[in-house]
Write a structure and sequence with these properties.
The chain is mostly helical. The protein is built from eleven helices and two strands, in the order H-H-H-H-H-H-E-H-H-H-E-H-H. Helix content is about 55%, strand content about 5%. A two-stranded antiparallel sheet has the order 1-2. Helix 5 runs antiparallel to helix 6 and helix 6 packs antiparallel against helix 8. It is globular and about 50 Å long.
Length: about 250
Amino acid sequence: MDSLLSKNLSRRSLLKGAGLAGAGALLSFNSVWGFSRVFGQAMADDDLQTILNLAATAELFATTHYLAAINGDLGLAEVQVNYLKAGFLAEQDHLDLLVSLGAEPVVTEFYVPEMLFSDQALFSAVTEVAETAFVGAYLAATRVFSKSEETTPFAVTTAQIAAVEAEHRALVRQIGGRLANNISYAQYTLNNVSDAVPVLQPFLDGKPADDSLGTFIGPVAPPTADDIAGVRAQAEMLGYDSTVQPFAAM
C-alpha cells in the first residue's frame, strides 16, 4: 500500500493544491490532475485482484458517504435527498457485483471531515472530487480490461459503472449550485485504478496533509444490512431501476 501512496498525486496536492480553502471554494481539477503527468507515466498495469479490491474499497466508501449524507444535516430539498438515495443504491449494487467477483475491500471503516455532512458546499466539492476519481479509476480499469478479449466483458462493465459515477458527479455539482453538465467527455484522470489511492487516502486513515478540509473524525462504519434494506425498500418510490444488468453478468 505504501508504494501506491507516492504515485501520481500527493495528499497535499489534493487538499491544498486544489485550492479548497473553505466550504464555498471550488476545486480545480486541472491543477490537481496534471494531464502531462498522467499520460507521461509508463507504469505496469494493475492486476485483476488489485482492481477488484480497490474498486470495492471505493464503493464501500461511497455507500458510507452517501448514507451519512442522507442522514446528515445538509438542508437539501427532497429531490436532492432522493438523488443521494438512488446514488447509494447504485454504489451498493456496484459493491455487490465486485464482491461476487471475489473483491475484498482494503479497509472497512472510513474517516470524514467533521463538517462534511452539515456544510452543503463542502459536501458538494468533496463529493465531486471523489466521483471524478471514481470515473477516472473505472476508465483506467476499462483501458486495462480492453487489452484482452478474455476480459472484454469486464471492460464493458467498468465503462457502465463509470457512466453512472459521472451521473453522480453531475448531481453533486447541481447540489453545489454549479453547472451539472459542464464537460464534453468524462475525465480520464488516472492511468491505473491504484492511482486513485492518494485521492481517498485521508478518508482511509483520517490523516490529511493539512487542515484544508477541517478536522477528520471517525472511524465511520459502513452501512449495515438493515441500512441497505431500508433504502432498497424505497427504490420503487424513487424510480430506481434495478433491472439493468452489468454486461459481465449477461
